[in-house]
Design brief:
2 copies of one chain form a homodimer.
Chain A lengths: L8 H9 L5 H19 L2 E4 L1 H14 L9 E5 L26 H8 L3 E6 L27 H8 L5 E6 L5 H7 L2 E4 L19 E6 L2 H11 L14 E5 L9 H16 L3 E5 L8 H16 L1 H6 L6 H11 L3 H22 L4 E5 L16 H7 L5 E5 L10 E5 L5 H17 L10
Parallel strand pairs in A: 2-3, 2-4, 7-8, 7-9
Antiparallel strand pairs in A: 1-3, 4-6, 5-6, 5-10, 9-11, 10-11
Chain lengths: 435, 435
């Protein structure tokens, strides 16, 4: 039953390609995991074991050779899929059955992945939460909006999964659920077939069981992505608290500072990064742009089905209504002017470290906590990685965020691989992703 | 038969809303226009008069009250539509019937517009051309890629139409076909349901029969777009030749310079704008990024159906294959650094004028000429308008391009309205859009 519990997607596909195990053996294992815990987790909004088995059988028959041969994957329900309805957790789209797969779903299929099902998102990947529970504590949120993909990862339903991020929708659930996550640079991955929220920020991202899984997915989903050179030696990191450090829980701060100590003990230089004061406005600028763009993105739903929208979404429309065109333009202009300043700040470092979230997963399923430590970097489209920190038995996960310069995605993945290796051998070893 | 030949969308909707004419009377007129010339123009890839009549009858019955009540519209075939197949002029998508409308198609329907049909695009809005002919001269291209929308406009099949632009796909056909066209600032209009080509540049745009039509469409497609204040007085314009002025045909240069003279005679200041030398690299940087992003966008089609792609698209893949990750990053970085420089250059002016194209529509249907004068501004996401210049009887259309600062879309439309009024009263009056 637990034979693939420790296997990451990379080793699973290697075993399938080497005919050590078959795609259907792998699939049956993960179907068993779903069977065991889905009733309490509620990761899936659409799941059909027969369709999963049909894919595995087809792969076995055709001796699939892709980079993800036989690897089960969870797909957030804001990606169009031909073989599952696509509902965005909105009653408006109860009957929506897309005619084509989203771009990245096509690429996953071509690489031999097995689509396990559609995972719960919040309404339109915004704030109104679904029924999904955090496998580490069923009374807590898994985070939002990639809730089902993150909870399904933590429950062991699949070793890789797709999410999206506009503010903190990928990294926050990774932090709360103890997952490796990668949000590439803005614009690198096609959003074809993904319902837009705030197009200035919307980005495809994914979960894996290791940093190398995150890189493997990058190879599949970003054609032409440079190959990782595992021999590189990274030395110099920044540590950036941002203007919201006062919102960090003491336990989280301690865990992050311990990780920094582990890195220093291993011979790495970690320097405090102090941002100019003007960066304190970034949080509000992100919110404002998100509101205005979101209101435009869902304007047709507001006109046709105002009664079917959540109070959270209606509040966004109301904030957008009170924001002027000039205010939105000014916010965009401020971010555009700060971007090259940040680029210079990042230049001396191989990566910049910080918090993924200010707290562990909060109690309750309806509110998922602020995304400030994620959206600060989202405002500039920078690539972000969550590395789950080690923790005592029974403690809730805490994530270390590792951020790179714009389009330094490959470099960042390499740096994260090295950081992860240090932390797993340090006093504070990184955790398994499965609970 | 010709009763609505001179009516723009704004006046048509006003007449429908005031019950002066009914939606079906308007529709029948435009259906007659299609009947008369479509066989030689080939604007439509999907057209069904019965579906058009059904929409008009429904609008009449429900006394539709939208801003585009009863106004026929052409939709480029790279927008998803529920009631027409969406084929992108690619045999891969012969049977593609989307489950939902693209965002802007929904907004058009909500505003009371009548979808006339899907108009020809080049393959995936890139370079491989379709059968559409230029109504001004059937032996000439209408331009690409929004070929069917532009030709249909010039042939009088509809008074407004949707296009898209990544390099020059909207403005070039407008210039060749003698149309008013508006490409808003990058990111303003939702691309949901539009097949991506190069996401850093892809933008929704449209044609109309007047500048006020362009503004009316902005009101419909950009919720929250500021209202035009027709009383503003614009005085100061730039005139920018860019580094490609040596590619301008003499007749085009003369027409543009005559328009500038008209503006000066009417009391406007038009100053020559000289760009720093580093801007000469923008053309190649746009091409390089377009190639790399295009190759990523169509990577799934390349993998699954390489035999069904055009030689033009395969050449793009080949160029992308020979481009390194670092070259693409460097190109993006150069554009990001030049954007604020350009912003400063634009600051003294209400708008910057220039050429839309270096020539009139070339002979032949397979090649549509360079898009340099369009893509230069696309590289920075600036809003662009084409104003058709007046011309002697029988002469081919020439377009004046009017460009604004980023997100100065409303200001730009107002400036264009004033420029257009001057030109229509000047020695070189602006042309009708219908031939």
């Amino acid at each position: 039953m637990h034979k693939f519990e420790k296997s990451d997607a990379t080793s699973l596909s290697e075993m399938v390609l080497a005919d050590i195990v078959s795609a259907d053996t792998v699939t049956e294992y993960f179907l068993d995991c779903v069977e065991l815990r889905e009733q309490s987790i509620k990761a899936f909004v659409s799941f059909d074991p027969s369709r999963v088995r049909a894919q595995a059988a087809q792969l076995k028959k055709s001796h699939a050779k892709g980079l993800l041969a036989g690897v089960p994957v969870g797909i957030k329900d804001n990606y169009d899929t031909m073989d599952h309805p696509t509902r965005f957790y909105s009653p408006i789209y109860d009957d929506n059955c897309p005619s084509r797969d989203a771009h990245v779903v096509s690429l996953l299929r071509q690489a031999g992945a097995v689509i396990m099902g559609k995972t719960h998102t919040t309404e339109f990947a915004y704030m109104h939460t679904g029924p999904t529970r955090n496998p580490h504590d069923l009374d807590r949120t898994p985070g939002s909006s990639s809730a089902g993909s993150a909870a399904g990862m933590a429950a062991g339903f699949f070793p890789i999964a797709l999410g999206t991020q506009t503010a903190g929708s990928l990294i926050k659930p990774a932090s709360y659920c103890g997952l490796y996550a990668f949000k590439p640079s803005y614009g690198l991955v096609s959003l074809e077939g993904v319902k837009p929220l705030a197009p200035s920020f919307d980005t495809v991202g994914w979960y894996g069981r290791s940093v190398r899984d995150l890189a493997l997915m990058a190879q599949v989903l970003i054609p032409g992505f440079p190959k990782l050179n595992h021999e590189r030696n990274f030395r110099s990191f920044g540590f950036c608290r941002t203007a919201r450090w006062d919102q960090i829980d003491e336990d989280v701060a301690k865990a992050l500072e311990a990780a920094v100590e582990d890195l220093r003990s291993a011979g790495h230089q970690v320097s405090e990064v102090l941002l100019p004061e003007e960066f304190a406005a970034v949080f509000d600028d992100h919110l404002l742009i998100n509101d205005c763009e979101g209101a435009r993105s869902f304007s047709k739903e507001l006109k046709m089905h105002p009664d079917k929208l959540s109070v959270e979404l209606l509040a966004m429309f109301e904030r957008a209504r009170l924001t002027t065109w000039e205010q939105e333009s000014a916010a965009k202009r401020r971010l555009a002017r700060l971007a090259p300043v940040l680029e210079e700040i990042f230049r001396p470092f191989d990566a910049v470290l910080g918090a993924s979230c200010g707290s562990v997963a909060p109690l309750g399923l309806e509110v998922t906590g602020p995304s400030d430590f994620c959206k600060f970097w989202m405002a500039f489209g920078l690539p972000q990685i969550n590395i789950p920190l080690g923790r005592p038995a029974g403690a809730l996960p805490v994530g270390l965020q590792v951020v790179g310069g714009f389009r330094s995605d490959c470099h960042l993945l390499q740096a994260a691989e090295q950081i992860d290796a240090v932390l797993r051998n340090g006093k504070h070893s990184a955790t398994s992703t499965i609970v």
